[in-house]
Write a structure and sequence with these properties.
The chain is an alpha+beta fold. The protein folds into four domains: 147 residues, Acid Proteases (Cathepsin D, subunit A, domain 1); 96 residues, 3-Layer(aba) Sandwich (Rossmann fold), CATH 3.40.50; 63 residues, ATP-grasp fold, A domain (Dna Ligase, domain 1, 2-Layer Sandwich); 108 residues, ATP-grasp fold, B domain (D-amino Acid Aminotransferase, Chain A, domain 1), CATH 3.30.470. It contains eleven helices and 28 strands. The strands form seven sheets. Strands 2-3-11-4-10-9-8 form a seven-stranded mixed beta sheet. The chain has a five-stranded antiparallel beta sheet with strand order 26-25-24-27-28, sandwiched between helices. It has a four-stranded parallel beta sheet with strand order 14-13-18-19, with helices on both faces.
């Protein structure tokens, strides 16, 4: 499709292009005229010299939602620049210049290299690369033609693999979430049959001799070897009931229903941690608004943290900087019959904490999370940033013991560094994978699948 007056092709919001110099026969690009620069998905980035010229080598997953196809690419380095990513954070990226074929046109464009696993589209085409070449109609898609799955398989030499492994169900709510997609991909890469089960579409037959789980349309779920519960907080009750049902059917649950229930009860989980001899920030709990002043003094006075027991992902956490502010927040929550914890504020943490990812009694990956400007708590859902962390021996021990105290096989353990040593904040039974995989470039999803294989003594 071309405009009569200019002869320029009109492209849609997504198109297929070719980067033959990198050995990429087809990659679906997100066309974004709002972005200045263009970016290509890259990981395992390494620099070297060819003669006296600096080069960069990197791996690419060129296809959406597919980590099995990986290409190794090389290119001379054009530059290294500070680029703002989609969340507004700045990062230093290598820049390369390569020919791009889009429809019938071929021209050179600059590409920055960054890990786009969490973005879906493996390449972003910005306005600098399009200037003077094309016009964009954001309401359309694939104006320059589509490429079928069969054609892609031929281009990349994809051979269908026969499933000879375990049958593993992912029990969750949203199949589009990064963590859920990664676990499905990782299981398939290992040769297992992966099944996504939406919690809301499952129902149970309670029978002491023949317990069953049914799926929408009356389908009876059978033949499962393992289930990975990834239960959002709002679905804890029913999700744990389903997990318990699978357990009664002899299906291995990576995190048991009891362990998930314990970890989701913030007050109970803190009591369990203390009983296990683990350190937490000084914490108070009261049911009556009459006890507000004593509750404030119990944790050393203001400033202090007020946490709703039902809060998730940083929501329902308030910093009260003065005693008067603390009284107002506590009494406001009490007025709507909300249960809350009051916790000492660790000023020296400076808005940073650690997330340690524990799998089968071992810390497999760790990141430091830093709060967004103006925030007091590190939270990746609210503009915080993540970087690779090197936890101390004591912090690793703390994370492993906390996970064991909860009875969990997989957990995200949040730790804060204080002047008296590391303190436990929370143990998460369904930790997200996006932040930790992106920052560490570790295949945590694969580690979770491997942990199931070890538990079930499966070898492929």
């Amino acid at each position: 499709m071309h405009t009569p007056s200019t002869g320029k092709p009109i492209i849609g919001s997504e198109e297929w292009c070719q980067l033959s110099q990198l050995g990429i026969p087809a990659v679906k690009v997100r066309v974004d005229s709002g972005a200045k620069t263009s970016a290509l998905h890259a990981f395992n980035i390494q620099t070297f010299k060819r003669g006296n010229v600096p080069w960069v080598a990197f791996d690419v997953h060129p296809l959406q939602n597919n980590r099995r196809v990986a290409l190794r690419c090389e290119s001379p380095i054009l530059d290294r620049r500070i680029i703002k990513n989609t969340s507004g954070a700045s990062e230093k990226r290598y820049v390369i210049k390569v020919p791009m074929r889009l429809g019938g046109q071929l021209w050179e464009i600059e590409l920055t290299l960054t890990n786009r696993d969490s973005m879906g589209y493996r390449m972003l085409l910005g306005r600098e690369a399009m200037a003077g070449r094309v016009l964009v109609d954001p309401s359309s898609s694939m104006n320059l033609g589509r490429i079928s799955d069969f054609e892609l398989s031929e281009m990349y030499g994809i051979v269908p693999t026969k499933k000879s492994g375990l049958k593993i169900a992912l029990l969750a709510t949203n199949p589009e979430l990064y963590s859920n997609q990664r676990l499905m991909e990782a299981g398939e890469e290992r040769g297992h049959e992966m099944v996504f089960l939406s919690i809301k579409d499952c129902y149970m037959k309670l029978d002491d001799e023949n317990p069953e789980v049914h799926y929408r349309g009356g389908h009876i779920i059978t033949g499962l070897d393992a289930v990975i519960p990834r239960i959002r907080p709002s679905a804890t009750f029913y999700g744990c009931a389903l997990t318990r049902q699978f357990e009664s059917m002899g299906v291995y649950a990576q995190n048991s229903s009891l362990a998930i229930s314990q970890s989701r009860d913030k007050l109970f989980s803190l009591q369990l941690l203390i009983k296990s001899g683990l350190d937490i920030p000084l914490t108070g709990f009261a049911n009556s608004p009459i006890d507000t002043n004593e509750l404030i003094e119990m944790v050393g006075g203001a400033p202090l943290i007020v946490k709703l027991l039902e809060g998730t992902q940083g929501r329902g956490v308030v910093l009260a900087e003065t005693k008067k502010a603390a009284q107002s927040v506590i009494n406001a929550f009490k007025a709507v019959k909300a249960n809350l914890l009051v916790q000492e504020f660790i000023k020296e943490a400076d808005g940073k904490d650690l997330r340690l990812f524990v799998i089968n009694g071992k810390v497999s990956a760790a990141i430091q999370r830093e709060a967004a400007p103006g925030e007091f708590r590190a939270n990746l859902h609210q503009g915080g940033t993540a970087s690779v962390a090197r936890p101390t021996t004591e912090e690793r021990r703390l994370a492993v013991k906390a996970t064991k105290a909860m009875g969990l096989a997989v957990a995200g353990v949040d730790i804060i560094r204080s002047k008296t040593g590391p303190l436990l904040l929370e143990v998460n039974s369904s930790p997200g994978l996006e932040g930790i995989e992106t920052a560490t470039e570790k295949d945590v999803a694969r580690m979770m699948i491997t942990a199931i294989e070890l538990q079930l003594k499966w070898s492929g």
